[in-house]
Amino acid sequence: MHAVAITGTGVFTPEQSITNDELVAAFNAHVDRWNADHHAAIAAGEVAAMEPSSTEFIVKASGIERRYVMDRAGVLDPDRMFPKLTARPDEAPSIMAEMAVDAARKALARAGREPGAVEAVFCAASNHERAYPAIAVEIQALLGTSGFAFDMNVACSSATFGIQTAADMIRAGSIRSALVVSPEICSAHLEWRDRDCHFIFGDVATAVLLERDEGLDAPRFKVRSTRLATQFSNNIRNNDGFLRRTHDQMQDRRDMQFMQNGRKVFKEVLPLVSTHIAGHMAEEGVTAEDLRRIWLHQANKTMNDFIGRKVLGRDPAPGEQPNILQDYANTSSAGSIIAFSQHSDDLAPGDLGLICSFGAGYSVGSVIVERA
Known about the structure:
Layout: E1 4-12, E2 16-19, H1 20-37, H2 39-43, H3 55-62, E3 66-69, H4 72-75, H5 95-111, E4 120-124, H6 135-143, E5 148-152, H7 158-172, E6 177-185, E7 203-212, E8 221-230, E9 236-237, H8 244-247, E10 259-260, H9 262-284, E11 291-296, H10 301-312, H11 325-328, H12 335-342, E12 352-359, E13 363-371
Parallel strand pairs: 4-5, 4-6, 11-12
Antiparallel strand pairs: 1-7, 1-8, 2-3, 6-7, 8-13, 9-10, 12-13
Helix pairs in contact: 5-6, 9-10
């Protein structure tokens, strides 16, 4: 079995962003118009009036202060409330591939590697732009990598599942290196007209380069161990798919966008993730005192704080469990990788850390790494 290391990471951040104040202004304008249009039905008790949102509500519920998006104009249009992402001709690069290539090139540059040295590309993301051909194969062609590529989707855990997939192949000797890219256009699957979730998501792309850890002397993170788990739940879902094209194309079905039973998710996911991490650490003989850092999925600050306390047995000290939610919002599978990429350079050789993502499925993936 071969040793594996993460040798480079990269993050693509969209140029456009939306603050909570801007989002609330657009949402409340939409609410006012909707309530006015449905005044008679509301007065008759046939439908409930929409409630306005507020910046205070968003921060308290999530810890989010702003989010990056591929298109802010469409989201902030009260008559539209979703991004304007124009379909591109077949000969043009897809949006996801373009985002992923930017992040991948940054990861390669950080590792000092050329694309031709990469033997596999996994596009691990929650929302794929098309069913086929695979986005990963397009990324492979645009980058000029060798070998093979394929897409995979485990919702918000896609990146960590991709890391284990790559690591297992490298350990077994079938490949020497792989890129795990997670281009997440979450703004396109979010229902921006729903007060309970209109603030949750943002857009971003991340890339992680993994290599066989032989003859490497540059700073890197050894992949000590990986662990994955799934448990079926319908409490986080998106029902959009090819079946919609046949019988629901003209209907505005709410369940075709992001749906979440937040209370059940909070109640069920927290013990699932905490138990998973504790079990993984115990198997590897890693104690809470051994961990210098935890990079968690960036879904909700309250959830992350709870998990941090469970894992460490105390409140995390400043810097032990970095959050990027306030700037990026929830970016699905990319969140834990953004945190890892932006908050890992200060670790010293021998320091241990744990990357963990979790989400719909339910799914949870953890990676124990050691600075080298």
